[in-house]
Amino acid sequence: MAQRKPSRAIKLFGTEAPEGKRRELTAGPISAVFDSGALRYIRYYGEEILRGISYIARDKDWGTYAPAIEDLKVRQNKNGFAITYQAICKDQDQSIRYTAKIDASSNGTLKFSAEGTPLSDFLTNRTGFVVLHPLAGTVGRPVEVVHTDGKRAKRKFPKLISPGQPIFEIRSLKHEPLSGVAVTVLMEGNKFEMEDHRNWMDASYKTYVCSLLDPWPYTLERGKTFSQSITLTVSGKPPKSRPRASVADTTVTLAGTKGRVPQIGLGVPMGEAAAALEAVDLIAAAKPQSLVCQIDGRERGQEEAAACYRDLSRQTGAPVTLEIILPAREPADKEVAEIASAVNAAGLTPASVVVTQMHDLKSFQPNTPRPWGPTYEDMATAARASFPDAMLGGGMLSYFTELNRKPVPHGVFDFITHTSCPIVHAPDDISVMETLETLPWIFTSARAMIGKVPYHLGPTSIPCRDNPYGAAVAPNSDNRRVCLSDMDPRQRALFAAAWNLGYLAAVARAGVDAITLGSVTGSQGMIYRKMAHTQPWFDGSDARLFPVYHVIAGLAAASGARRIGTDSSAKLAALAHRNKAGEVLWLANLSSETQRVKVKGFDGPARLDVLDERSFEAAVRDPAWLDSGGTFVRKVGSFELPSYGVIRISSS
Length: 652
Fold this sequence. Notes:
Layout: H1 8-13, E1 22-27, E2 30-35, E3 38-44, E4 47-58, E5 68-77, E6 80-90, E7 95-105, E8 109-118, E9 122-124, E10 126-134, E11 142-147, E12 152-156, E13 167-178, E14 181-188, E15 192-195, E16 204-209, E17 218-220, E18 226-236, E19 251-260, E20 263-268, H2 273-278, H3 280-286, E21 291-296, H4 302-316, E22 320-326, H5 332-345, E23 352-357, H6 376-386, E24 391-399, H7 400-405, E25 415-419, H8 429-434, H9 439-450, E26 455-460, H10 494-510, E27 514-517, E28 519-521, E29 525-527, H11 548-556, E30 562-567, E31 572-579, E32 582-589, E33 595-600, E34 606-611, H12 616-621, E35 631-633, E36 638-641, E37 646-651
Parallel strand pairs: 19-33, 20-21, 20-27, 21-22, 22-23, 23-24, 24-25, 25-26, 26-27, 28-29
Antiparallel strand pairs: 1-2, 2-3, 3-4, 4-10, 5-6, 6-7, 7-8, 8-18, 9-17, 10-16, 11-12, 11-13, 13-14, 13-15, 14-18, 15-16, 19-30, 30-31, 31-32, 32-37, 33-36, 34-35, 34-37
Helix pairs in contact: 4-5, 5-6, 9-10, 10-11
């Protein structure tokens, strides 16, 4: 019996769940995209001046509610546009209704107002407006602040990522994203403050309602209506000579060699240790340079997990970096020694050890009290005593935010680490791809913090590894796009293959020493296995892999190779290196639209291997797919790269 074919949505996103429809609206020189109740990409004469304005409700764990929009009315005319709608945000315990109104006119003004009424007592970390300033035209640039007491101050958007809020008690912000253009954002109905959104991979500065200095979560009382509004005013005109986007933006140019491809490894969570061992042949074929495994001192089965890691290392030839989580109930030397005893009993000899404690898995505001726990120095001393022959890493098993808020003292560890997550604040497709824009700032800020010590990135994937901001990760049984969930359907699709290539390209460009991607198996994995949640099409098929496997396997083998510099557009990720045969260029289309790509500087005949909708089924069935076919050309010129497609171009 012939197997059913995967749909286009499954190939691209791993789910049939659709995203909301978007509509572009104009008001004279102002344009904006209306998307699921929010405004995105607010432009003035075609230039982005705000990344977005949205009214959001977040729960006590920082999960973001998806609003159910009703009675939507959109009116567009020659003088501007107007939008009205009602929305409900709810779960099984609580709900809130709000009425929204947006008016934009051709005279350069836009107002977004909302009136909210809790239908029950509503426990929330934040409910109200959020304004996003894009990075282009803002990073390090002046901003004029009017505070809630009416006082004015001249400040700057941070250049290096600020661990805390750079501006408090905000009534309005005024800046010049372009020469001769002034943008003022007036925020009314409550106090607002700004945080450096780049901490969480978001490509923006975020100004939000209320203050994190006040107690949270807080309760909005049932039936008590409250109002807020955001008013945008723009004046001036951008210079006529400003550069414009063109077809040339899809050109990829190869330059000289610049550094090396980082060491690329794979994560093995403690809960996936046994499953990983069952897939050891596929892991070995991917040629990871390391296996980043974990022992959680709060969990049972430590010796059993360590035995699996031992066998994985022996059968793949990959050394183990062992992450150790201390329960932080007793002194570090005692807790490390107990875990070391289980590791030694299993016969595992890790090449590297990263040590942390349970309280550092959670996020704390800068300069706020933390629960008792061993210091970096305590943990380092204990780990060196129990694992004297291992390289010792420190930092965070969570994200850059937590490292930025609790920097590692210099001279204590042999390398510093943190991980990344692109779905902390916004899970839609565009926002997830936009997180790649933030990586250069994260890497620059981290390097300024840690100095010249080797810099490693821990297991990173689209699904989140953990939720430092709440009690647990968000559930996602329906294969939707959900913030802070450890299961994201796009991990199974071409989308993840493209995003991971974009991530690797940014890591290589920044000179990061080592990177670990996701997990070998499980919801953050690259190898299919049956899970408790549904995996549409994959369940019941003979698929063995997800498309991202081929990106990881193809580039892990190139770890340490001489990297070739590349220049490309923001919507096209590029990573090139040299091997014995010549040049290898990887490209990923980071958008939902087919791109026409022109390659310059690639010498001689080449082989093209394209991972896209057409090759999807063959690729997820065959671990050797990348070396099983391809198209040969005498010269690399122009070609089309489909939505979220990946291509490897190698000298032939």
